[in-house]
Each structure stands twice: as structure tokens, then as C-alpha cells.
Design goal:
Layout lengths: L1 H13 L4 H22 L25 H16 L4 E4 L3 H9 L4 E5 L10 E5 L13 E7 L18 H12 E12 L4 E3 L3 E3 L2 H10 L3 E9 L4 E5 L12 E9 L7
Parallel strand pairs: 1-2, 1-4, 2-3, 4-5
Antiparallel strand pairs: 5-10, 6-7, 8-9, 8-10
Length: 261
């Protein structure tokens, strides 16, 4: 099943061939023609044809992915924490960043350019694998959601670096002021690279990188793809392990008030 899912992802997202859409289209067309014939009997307005063939099978919205839940959960955390300054690194503009920008200003660092001006968003193009251009201890609140796993793979025009994720975590830590909070997420699994899409990292690998950067992991949550919920995992045992139902780790980290890295 996982192999089929990956094959469908490659065909649809990379080649533009969605087999499920293609196979469902004839049935959608039949439903369209049926409804068109019925509607024309009572419609008095000018009628143009613009078939939408697949919405019969859609739910009210796409809320099943870890992206949706992570963006919502962390945005609510930041709202409740009310930090003085919040900086985001590489998270989704059309998800998490938009959520936060709806109630406060958010600064965004990304290796990619951004041509649009977005209300509530202050953008800065920056490479998180280069600490020299970033500054040190500049914010009390920082997020990097579903992004650090891409660092160093060249997918977004960044320089290749096999240690990109570890270097990125270290540089994230440098941005935090003592007492500051980091919200970090990345795919969980064995420590491996799916080149050039992303990495998967064991939660205890992430924990070691966080602690090596001078931060303290306060909480670990794993997204359960079966229940569509983030489950808090104890950090006192090898519980920073993962299971086949888990797809994303969400880590809440703090910089101790007396530590400088």
C-alpha cells in the first residue's frame, strides 16, 4: 500500500498524472450530464459549461493531513504564548504563516524568494545553513515546521549539505534568546534520506541535535495518522521511538535562561 501511495505521489505531483482522478472522471462526467439535463429544465439564465467532475466525493475540506493539524496546533500555541517577537523559518505560507498573521505580525525567513507582499508578514530571504547572515539571540519565539528535513538537499535551491538538518537545528538555536521557545517539526522514521524530497529522523536523533545545540526538549508529540491527532510522548524512556502509524514529530523546545550557544 505504501509503495502504491508513493507511485501515485510521483505520477500526480511530479508528472501531472493522477490515476485516481483519471479513473474517476468518466463517472463524474455521467453525473455532470445527468445534473445538467435536470437543471436546464428550470434554469432561465444564460448557461455556460464548466464541468467540475470530482467534488461529489470530496469532504467539506482537507483536514486529514499532518500539515493541517500542525499548523493549527502551533498557531494556537503562539497565540496563547503571546511572544514579543515571532520568527518562522520555512513553514507553509498558505497554512501556518497565514494563521499567525491573522492575529499578529510574523517574520519569515526562507531560502526561496517571495515577490508578494502579505499583510502581517515581514519576509527576509535567508539560508539557515549559513549562521553569519542570521544574527544571534534575536527572538523569543521561533518556529520551523516541516522544513528542517529539507535543508541541504538542494530541492529549493539551497546548497547541498549531508548534515543540513543538524546544522539547521544548531542555527535555529542561535537565533533564540535565553528563555526563548522553538517549535520544530519533521517527519519521523528511521534516520534516512529520500533524495531529494526530504529526510526522516528518529525522535531521539532530533532530541540529541536539540540538546547538542544547547536547547532543552520540553515536549514531544507524534502525529497519529490513524486518529488524526498529535499524541504527547513521554521523554523518559525509549519512547521517543516511532511506529508505522506515526508520520510527524512536533517538538517544543526551550533555551535555558543561562545558556548561550
Amino acid at each position: 500500500m505504501r509503495t502504491l501511495a508513493k507511485a501515485n505521489w510521483f505520477l500526480s505531483q511530479q508528472l501531472g498524472i493522477d490515476l485516481r482522478t483519471l479513473l474517476r472522471a468518466p463517472w463524474g462526467m455521467a453525473l455532470y450530464i445527468r445534473d445538467l439535463m435536470r437543471f436546464r429544465r428550470t434554469n432561465a439564465l444564460k448557461l455556460r459549461f464548466q464541468p467540475c467532475l470530482h467534488d461529489w466525493w470530496q469532504q467539506a475540506g482537507a483536514v486529514g493531513t499532518e500539515y493541517f493539524w500542525q499548523d493549527l496546533v502551533v498557531a494556537r500555541m503562539i497565540h496563547d504564548a503571546a511572544p514579543v517577537r515571532h520568527i518562522d523559518v520555512g513553514s507553509r505560507l498558505d497554512g501556518f504563516v497565514a494563521h499567525v498573521a491573522s492575529f499578529r505580525e510574523i517574520e519569515v525567513f526562507d531560502v526561496r524568494p517571495l515577490e508578494s507582499t502579505i499583510p502581517g508578514v515581514v519576509f527576509r530571504q535567508a539560508d539557515m545553513m549559513s549562521e553569519n547572515s542570521l544574527g544571534r539571540e534575536i527572538t523569543d519565539s521561533l518556529s520551523c515546521l516541516h522544513a528542517v528535513e529539507h535543508f541541504g538537499l538542494g530541492r529549493y535551491g539551497d546548497p547541498l549539505n549531508a548534515q543540513g538538518s543538524m546544522l539547521g537545528i544548531a542555527n535555529l538555536a542561535r537565533l533564540l534568546r535565553p528563555g526563548g521557545t522553538l517549535y520544530l517539526s519533521c517527519p519521523v522514521g528511521e534516520d534516512e534520506v529520500f533524495f531529494n524530497a526530504h529526510r526522516a529522523l528518529r525522535p531521539n536523533t532530533v532530541k540529541a541535535a536539540i540538546e547538542g545545540a544547547g536547547l532543552r526538549m520540553v515536549q514531544c508529540r507524534l502525529f497519529n495518522s490513524s486518529t488524526k491527532a498529535f499524541e504527547v510522548v513521554s521523554m523518559d524512556h525509549a519512547a521517543l521511538a516511532h511506529g508505522p502509524q506515526h508520520s510527524l514529530g512536533l517538538y517544543l523546545c526551550e533555551k535555558p535562561a543561562s545558556t548561550t550557544v
